[in-house]
């Protein structure tokens, strides 16, 4: 009887361990894509800034539904950059003023500084 109990506990332990390993692997393989979001904050007419905010709103909703993970948001223009401490709501982004000029060199530097990036800019 003692041998049977030990055999049963071994099988149960190995079963739970395999479920744990499978769960961890599943979480790593099918994890939501993560990225740093670069938003160009150079001067943009209000109607064009609205398109930027709409694009951001779509990404923000995906972030809220855990379909993507926005690691951080960086606002930039030719005058500098601002790394936001939290992911802003679309309403907060809508209220931002745009100023300065576009700077492709600064954008390239920021792309090098972060591993995975998405860029949203005024069109």
How does this model look, in words?
With about 120 residues, the protein is of the alpha/beta class. The chain is built from four helices and four strands. Strands 3-2-1-4 form a four-stranded mixed beta sheet, with helices on both faces. The mean pLDDT is about 90.
Give short descriptive properties of this protein:
elongated; four-stranded mixed β-sheet; 123 residues
List the total number of helices: 4
Largest sheet composition: 4 strands, mixed
Q: Helix/strand-derived class? A: alpha/beta
Radius of gyration based on Cα positions: 23 Å
Number of strands: 4
Q: What's the overall average pLDDT, rounded?
A: 91
What form results from the Cα inertia axes?
elongated
Q: In percent, how helical is the residue content?
A: 40-55%
Termini separation (Å)?
Answer: 76 Å
Strand content: 15-25%
Uncertain stretches:
none
Task: Give me the strand/helix succession.
Answer: HEHEEHHE
Please list the strands of the largest sheet in the order they lie side by side: 3-2-1-4
């Amino acid at each position: 009887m003692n041998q049977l109990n030990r055999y049963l506990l071994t099988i149960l332990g190995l079963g739970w361990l395999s479920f744990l390993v499978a769960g961890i692997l599943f979480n790593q393989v099918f994890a939501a894509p993560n990225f740093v979001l670069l938003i160009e904050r150079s001067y943009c007419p209000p109607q064009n800034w609205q398109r930027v905010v709409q694009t951001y709103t779509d990404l923000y909703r995906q972030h809220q539904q855990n379909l993507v993970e926005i690691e951080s948001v960086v606002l930039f223009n030719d005058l500098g950059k601002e790394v936001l401490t939290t992911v802003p709501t679309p309403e907060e982004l809508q209220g931002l003023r745009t100023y300065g000029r576009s700077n492709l060199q600064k954008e390239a530097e920021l792309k090098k500084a972060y591993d995975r990036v998405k860029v949203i800019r005024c069109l």
